[in-house]
Structures are given as structure tokens and as C-alpha cells.
Design brief:
The strands form two sheets. Strands 1-2 form a two-stranded antiparallel ribbon. By secondary structure, it is α+β, with helices and mostly antiparallel strands. Strand 3 and strand 4 form a beta hairpin. The chain has one domain. 54% of the residues lie in helices and 16% in strands. The chain is elongated. The protein contains six helices and four strands.
């Protein structure tokens, strides 16, 4: 996947546009959807096939994305939902938290510990792996600054959401 992805990025803007429009016509969708699918597939390929030496297991979730993957719907999903195996973070599991006597301060504290461990992994090791992948792809495709990597925004907390990574790209 990465090699083909780099070849597409190396092509001219006009050639990429033609590619996306041709595929879109065959699939009866918009060229923008095809382009976004290309980027989504690249990220999924990296996360599930090429993350070396990362002990944290990930899994693909999300109804829209899964339904699309199995051909159950034709709608396009703009994001991908990825979960992580909490046991790999060495924190209490949901079952451990649920087994506590009642909903109390102790349960909330353990749940926050789990959430914080996930945020630390996403904002640290996982973000760094993605940064290196982006740098490698941009270097190989000779398209510096094509991608951006940052955090989503948590409206509830009114600050950056350290558990939501956003990869942007230039057209």
C-alpha cells in the first residue's frame, strides 16, 4: 500500500484529480470521497500492518466504517474509529472498575486512570509513530508539508483532545 500511495502522491495534481474522478465515476460517488478513502486506507495500513515494536494492540471499530468495509452501505465516513486494548496499557480494565462495590469516587478515579493512560499513549508514542510515517512518505514522495498532524478539540473540556488525532492533507 505505501509504495502505491507514494506513487500517487508523486503524480501531478492534475493526474491525481483524473485518477480520483475516473474511480469515482466507476463507483458512482464523488472524487473527494475516493481521495479521502485513499488517505484513510493509508492510515489503516500503517496502524494495522506497519507499526513495528509497538506493544499496544489496536482494533477497528465504528458502525459507519465497518458497514462500509463490508459493503452494507454506500455512505462515506469522514473519520475512522480505532480502539486500543486497555490491557496493553497496564491499567485497570472496565471489568475491574465495574466490579467495585458501587459507583463512587474509587470507580471514577480508576476510570480516569484508564482514560489518562489512553491519552498519554495517543498523544505520545502513537503520535510519534504517525509523525515518522508522515515524514517518510513526504520524503519519498517529495511533497514536504502535504500532511498535518494534530489533535481534535474537546468542546466539553474546552481544550485539545489528546485522545483524538487528526491527520490533514493539502489538495
Amino acid at each position: 500500500m505505501q509504495k502505491t500511495f507514494i506513487e500517487i502522491l508523486r503524480s501531478s495534481v492534475d493526474d491525481r484529480r483524473t485518477l480520483f474522478e475516473t474511480v469515482a465515476a466507476r463507483l458512482e460517488t464523488r472524487a473527494e470521497n475516493i481521495e479521502k478513502d485513499l488517505y484513510v486506507c493509508w492510515v489503516l495500513d500503517f496502524l494495522f500492518n506497519r507499526r513495528s515494536n509497538d506493544p499496544v494492540g489496536l482494533y477497528f471499530k465504528g458502525g459507519t466504517s465497518l458497514s462500509k468495509a463490508y459493503g452494507l452501505i454506500r455512505r462515506f465516513s469522514e473519520d475512522i474509529d480505532i480502539g486500543m486494548y486497555k490491557a496493553d496499557l497496564h491499567v485497570p480494565l472496565e471489568a475491574d472498575i465495574a466490579a467495585l462495590p458501587s459507583v463512587n469516587q474509587q470507580q471514577r478515579a480508576l476510570a480516569e486512570k484508564v482514560d489518562e493512560a489512553a491519552r498519554q499513549y495517543i498523544s505520545g508514542p502513537l503520535k510519534n509513530l504517525l509523525k515518522r510515517e508522515i515524514a517518510a512518505v513526504e520524503g519519498a514522495a517529495e511533497v514536504r508539508g502535504h500532511f498535518s498532524l494534530g489533535f481534535g478539540f474537546d468542546l466539553y473540556r474546552n481544550k485539545e483532545a489528546l485522545d483524538i488525532l487528526v491527520i490533514g492533507y493539502r489538495l
